[in-house]
Amino acid sequence: MIKYEQKEIILHIENLSVTYDNKTIIQDINLQEKDTVREGITQGQCIAFLGRSGRGKSTLFKAMTGLVTPTTGSVLIPDFSKPAINGSQPAKYVHEGDVGFVDQKYTLFRHKTVFQTLNFALRNSKLSKKEKEDKILSYLNDWGLYAFKDQYPNELSGGQRQRTAIIEQLLCSGFYMVMDEPFSGLDVGNIQNVKSAFDLISKSHELNTVIFSTHDIELAVELADSIYVLGYPKLENGNFANYGTIIKNFDLKKMGLAWNDEFTKDHLDVVKEIKLAMLNS
After folding, report:
1. Of 33, 62, 188, 243, which sits 20 to 30 A from 229 (CA to CA)?
2. Where are the domains of the chain?
3. Where are the beta strands (DSSP E) in the chain?
4. For residue 191, is it left (φ>0), alpha (ψ between -120 and 50) or beta?
5. How far is it, in rounded angstroms, from Cα 122 to Cα 16?
6. Is domain 5-98+174-279 given the CATH code 3.40.50.300 in the classification?
7. Alpha-carbon span 115 to 125, nearest angstrom
8. At what angle do helices 188-204 and 158-173 cross, to 10 degrees?
9. DSSP string for residues in 94-125
10. Rounded to the nearest 10 degrees, how much is the dihedral formed by the CA atoms of 164, 167, 168, 173?
């Protein structure tokens, strides 16, 4: 079992529901995630959301990033613009721009180079021009993009565009990164690139938190330290509701399965349990 500590709450979703045109998409979403600290290592958080198509993962992500307003409930993160009170940061409601969002298309400005895009992401920063440049170049070096800093999106590979989009969101949105199906349609090499990006995000700051969805259950179990399964809950009459909610949570930290270099039989057992939960919802 790898030792770790849990500190303050970094994500709190309470009684969340989203309704469109009188149709409830998600309901009764409740979760709480804390800052995970491991001695001698910078350790961010990696949270996966799984579920069959139509169970509300994309809607939940839009609520978590402030792109849609919840019908009920709230999404709260620490407010680092205010001083801590008794050692804890005050909480704030998530608004658009607080949480980074990277879609499957890795959307970038067509008329801006990589450097110009990242510089624009820091437009509201109080850093000096020199400090901004140093920060951008540091990211470009760490993410293997320095040689491409003067190139435009149409001159980049898919992996390079994705890395640029991730850095852009990290620079303008802080510690939180939501990625909707980042592994969809990728070959083995590009999947490895995304996994490396997750690792870079996690090791950049202990509060960095990657939140992603995927249909690849084994990848989720390999990468995440916490997994939530969304599905249709079963009602008292035996029928299924027609809205999505969290039906299962797997805390891989407590299970001793997070941050392992090997994919073991215990990991496969979790994969089977997740599959069964999904099939029954």
Report:
1. 188
2. 5-98+174-279, 106-173
3. 5-20, 23-37, 45-51, 72-78, 91-93, 100-102, 176-180, 209-213, 226-231, 245-251
4. alpha
5. 31
6. yes
7. 16
8. 20
9. --TTSSEEE-TT----TTS-HHHHHHHHTTT-
10. 160
CB 228 within 8 A of CB 30: no
Helix (H) or strand (E) holding 173, with range, is helix 158-173
Q: Which amino acid is present at 189?
A: G
Burial class (CB in 10 A: 0-12, 13-18, 19+), 189: exposed
pTM over 0.85: yes
DSSP state at residue 244 = B
Q: Which residues of the chain have pLDDT under 70?
A: 104-105
Helix 114-121 to helix 129-142 angle (10° resolution) is 120
Determine the residue type at 46: C
Six token digits for residue 35: 């800052």
